[in-house]
């Protein structure tokens, strides 16, 4: 597994690096695509290597964290290319990435809860439904399939529904009887979904809703790139931190 990863990187990286030759260093958004790409790759390697440090029941959580940043790494290579070559917002690549990685983050909640409660599966379904509404509406707005403001409002409703389920729903009650480490993981992941995820609608608003005509592509992409960096890498690190603590107690 690890060998495959290293081998693959050794073969693939030179061509990616070459594609970066077109990057204009004064292009702030382009530079942010490049930095987040590097961060995603580094995080992916980190999560897969760190699997060895944790006990068996936490390994899947770290694998999923690595998949999330790995999938994002792959999409960032393409998104960076679209931006550098055309100056356009890579909406389709962005949403394909989110459509894969957001459900995987819900899987992380499931994995944390499945070990200690019986409500994990039903909570997972609700979170998945909320995230599909959120992303479907966001895509419709950004791709010009729906007017941007109503799409935004429907997307917000999907997100708020998820927050409601996490705070008021069965997950929170169920997790309160679990170990302190599992509790703190659940709480930290909720913070990510409330605070970290708030960066995304802020990006959408800055890109499409801030007065005037047209799309503020630079604001949009800069804020989305920051959001992905925080929400994919920090999210994984929170899980890693709990996994390491719990494993040393066992
Ligand atoms: C790794 C990618 C993640 C965690 C993506 C998260 C995306 C969101 C939280 C998007 C939220 C949006 C709204 C709440 C309103 C409509 C516009 C969106 C789709 C940007």
From TrEMBL:
The keyword Transmembrane helix applies. One of its GO terms (cellular component) is membrane. It is found in: Membrane. The chain crosses the membrane at residues 29-49, 61-78, 98-124, 145-164, 184-210, 222-243. CDD domains: 7tm_Proteorhodopsin. It comes from the Bacteria. Contains one covalently linked retinal chromophore. SUPFAM superfamilies: Family A G protein-coupled receptor-like. Residues 1-17 form the signal peptide. Keywords: Chromophore, Membrane, Photoreceptor protein, Receptor, Retinal protein, Sensory transduction, Signal, Transmembrane, Transmembrane helix. GO terms for molecular function: light-activated monoatomic ion channel activity; photoreceptor activity. InterPro entries: Arc/bac/fun_rhodopsins, Proteorhodopsin, Rhodopsin_retinal_BS. Belongs to the archaeal/bacterial/fungal opsin family. PANTHER family: BACTERIORHODOPSIN _OPSIN, NOPA (EUROFUNG), PTHR28286. This is Proteorhodopsin.
